[in-house]
User: Fold these one by one.
Assistant:
Number 1:
Amino acid sequence: MRIIITDSYEKMGLEAANIVAGQVYLKPDSVLGLATGSTPVSMYQRLAAVHKTVGLDFSEVTTFNLDEYIGMSPDNPQSYHYFMQENFFKHINIRPENVYLPNGMAEDMIAEGERYEKLIAAKGGIDLQVLGIGQNAHIGFNEPDVKFAATTHKVELDEETIQANSRFFASASEVPRYAISMGIKTIMMAEHVILLANGKNKAKAVYKAVCGDVTPEAPASILQLHRDVAVIVDEAAASLL
Ligand code: GLP
């Protein structure tokens, strides 16, 4: 693991954006795995700026997002489809047909998981996966105890995750209880991975990911076994390292 510690949230986003931009520059038809949440927003802003100023070209890029809430339609402002559109896709020249997220409205989540995995495989796999981390060290929506072998599947969210994500909703009771998420195995199959975290509330999770035992109790700890991971964190998130 390479650990990059920055002195601000903006610089965390800048470091991450540089890695993504470098990937796209060298391989214009890259397949990117993308994350939602507050953490990667500064990275998306920076990438949008690089697209605008120097014309970083996303026209051949394909993206696969990590997860989506179950029961959330793409036009719902709280859906991850909507989040990606607003925070990233509408600011760059990506083609809508090259953008993929799990379908939270699918009738059969097992079939949807299989469909999603096949699509990723058909595109040649993920070149670079961007990850945030939950306070309980989840990645995607792989909560503690999820089997390391899982591919895209339906998950029941932990109470801690529901509370953490309730800030995006009117109340905790409105947060969906289920999501569909790439599994740990899907994430581990990516060629390169960057894990982003900022803020003191992520310090414990970052410690578990980087220094803790490799255990499904701390899903991000599996990244210690990946051959190319950069952990990009601000000083607060790195405070226990
Ligand atoms: C969410 C998402 C994750 C994200 C994490 C942290 O529940 N499913 O992909 O990394 O929690 O979110 P945030 O960046 O808002 O702290």
Note: The two ends are 13 Å apart (CA to CA).
Number 2:
Amino acid sequence: MKIFLIYGGKSAEHDISILTAYSIMKEVYYKYYEVVPVYITKEGAWLKGLTLDAPPTHLEALHLTAGEEAALAIKEGAVSTGVPITIAEIKEKDAVIFPVLHGPNGEDGTIQGLFEILDMPYVGAGVLASACGMDKIISKHLFTQAGLPQVPFIPIIKTDWLRDEEKVLAKCDEILDYPMFIKPANLGSSVGISKAMNQEELIAAIETALKYDRRVLVEQGVEAREVEVAVLGNDDVHTSVPGEIVKATNEFYDYQSKYLDNKVTMQIPALLPEEVQTQLREYAATAFKAIDGSGLTRCDFFVTDDHEIFINEVNTMPGFTEFSMYPLLWENTGLNYSDLVEELIQLAIKRFEEKQ
Ligand code: ATP
Ligand code: MG
Ligand code: MG
Ligand code: MG
């Protein structure tokens, strides 16, 4: 069977996606699948092959030297020659699409819509779940409906901000206390997110977030541990043990600490009482159903010292390198990386067949 592994993409999370693609390539290339890597450049061109353009720090993170990586790619004839691939070439019978794109245009339902039109099975969330999961404002509304606990927040539309800044600020002051977290509605990897300690910082943070999206949200900041649960399945939902992101300081988990500093460790399973772990897993399954998830989702929570739980967000295409939280959570729940990749492909086929 042929797998089209689609990675890269125009979003700010381009580089992370390349890392994930390398991990999956290493895993499935020597199996019974024929893998065709499809690289979407930052400019949006679709090229056939494995790019060698990854930043060196990213190769290091995967314990791959540029030489090794190039050798792997060349050996398999996968190295990017800059040959364009058209969407028509992807439409093949008995092929599965494995998109490992993060953020807008990859994780938000747009490319999933293309796969629906191609009428092919694809790994992960469908159009609706991708769109709802990516949009932090919409997902919060769905979580409220599903009875999931979350911190208070205020959605802001750019036009309203430009028309009456004072009114928006007054509302933030009325409902929220500092610190506040300000986020673009549709992004990931902490891009465009700031923490504000006072009104001056809040204004700057809203302006920053608005550079990335025309809708942003201001959230109540909480002092809490960060715990994540992996969800896998279609209509039958399975959850992993929770894992904690342990940060060296109590600063927030920003882009720098996520991918560059190596100051973050993962504690799997999270050191939490059994009943708190069970509650987190139930909430994760509920969140998955609330957005109509399929395939995979990583559900992020805040857990306070007295074990109060708030759901933060869901990621329908979480980081998926061998060293990422999502696969490590499954590894610790009894499913290794290789079997996980296989399971995701099978879930994609199953969902496609059920739809026919
Ligand atoms: P990703 O998709 O990579 O997980 P993201 O860009 O979708 O991240 P969030 O997970 O919402 O962003 O936030 C990024 C980080 O900012 C969190 O992991 C946490 O460290 C911090 N943070 C976000 N919201 C809050 C909050 N309300 N209170 C305290 N910290 C927060
Ligand atoms: Mg996210
Ligand atoms: Mg994300
Ligand atoms: Mg997150």
Note: The chain has three domains: 2-122, 133-149+223-355, 153-220.
